[in-house]
Specification:
mainly alpha
Length: 506
Amino acid sequence: MGWWENLQLKVGGVDARVRAMEQLGTSGDVRHVDSVVATALEDGSPLVQKAAAEALGKLGDPKGITTLAAMIQHGKPEVQKAAALSLQKIGGVQAVVPLAGALSNIDPEVRRTAMEGLVAIGPPSLGPLVGLLKDMNREARRTAAEALGRIGKPAVAPLLAQLKDKDPELRKLVPEILVKIGKPAVDALAAGLADSSSETRRLTADSLGKIGDPKANPILVEALQDSSGVVRDASARSLGLLGWQPENDAQKALLAVALRDWNQTVTLGAAAVPPLVAALKDSDLRLVEAATAALAKVGAAAVPPLIEALKDENPTKRSQAARALGEIKNPEAVPALMEVLHDADGTVRESVVLALWRMGGPEAAAGLTKALDDEDGLIRSRAARALGEINAQEAVEPLLQLAERDGYARSAAALAIWKVAPLKAVKPLALWAADDGTAEEAIIALTQLLEQSPKDVAVEDLQAVVQLLRGRVADKEAGRGSLVKRADPSTVCALAEKELARRGNA
């Protein structure tokens, strides 16, 4: 350092010290770095500190990096900006950490300058930048992500990993940066379509379409078979952006199912069955229901794959496969449905009961009769009702047993018997009415039976009516119960007693 500059730094005024620092910087002599560093740390004037920071940048010696980093942390805003700019000029691996730290600065100009420095340094900046993507400071994360995007292809893999971040803003930002990187990102993005997160796969598929490189077509076509409907949809739309056209009916079907174009799907017939069956395990229940309806419209061609789907590990898929088979009403499916009556999942068993109900016939009736012993009361009730709807005469005895033992399914069993064999329904209906003080339907049915065919009712059934309903009549007369609004149990009892008296059994 010249004697004059040294003197000015020690005893000169602020302007003199600033000029002295500027002269040291323009000298280009790295031997002055130590003096500049000392002054930068000791001088209390922000103007002199700023000049010192600029001088260190001009001298370009890495020995000044530590001092510049301290200036960014503790200096006035104008000092921080000058220090960040000088770090950018010095560059090199040693400047990465302090520049990365500057991305958390509250001053946007400091953050911008630091980012430009990190971009200029390139791949050595990736580690700290990726770390900053997890920073609590949102601006630091955003600036770091932008820097990674500016660095380009080397940053694709770490950016892709951030698609799982909990911050929705970052998940939205990362695909935008990947799109800006463009074609160099396509190969790395392919890995994103194999990620375990459906959201990551969706964002990846969306990004590939926006990049616009047809090189992505094969992996997007493969993604049309993804297990998630949102991923399939994003892949289909990206293929549309890329101008891709299906080559055969199988690809047309994949595309139609992905886009939820159910009319187009059904017209493709057998080719549409595999993607439709695969869609039965989607988490979107509306999509699952639509796919089930489409399979029913496809018809017989869907039966073998649907029977196979009854064995799938996914209970939703098994359940919907059963429902679709019920809609198709192909008798070949009945044995397979019978096997699933013992499924561990109650929803699946209920779907099987509904399917057998729709199909009807002796084999279906046999399956529904087995379901009367199900551990789930709702399923027992559904099976009983179904047997009545399909007029299963062979199921009357099991239904009578169910009405006797099962209070939960009693009403369904009684109504089923009434539809299939009305005269055998007298006691079950009476049991139901005795259990349920609001069983209007049971009272009405008993009234009709005893008014229209009293002579055909068995004596023991007439006696059961009187015994079971007498308590209800007493409750009503005492004002303790309101059995029904339009039907009167006392009328039923009177009709039963009248017929018993006629037969001499009163």
